[in-house]
Amino acid sequence: MSQTMTLVRADLCRKCGGEMNISEKCKQCRKPITLRCTECDHASNVQFHPLCIYG
Ligand SMILES: [Zn+2]
Ligand SMILES: [Zn+2]
Going by fewer Cβ within 10 Å, which terminus of the chain is more open, N or C? Predict the structure, then answer.
């Protein structure tokens, strides 16, 4: 139960608070675009990369 301050705190499921796995990565900058919950399979969009996509 070691809770450290992490920069990324958005990778917890909004529904059940479970861990989110990276479901889709940006092909350009390799940052996560879509996360999927390992518990309830709820998917959430992290961020869109219009510049990357259309680059
Ligand atoms: Zn990108
Ligand atoms: Zn969940």
Answer: N
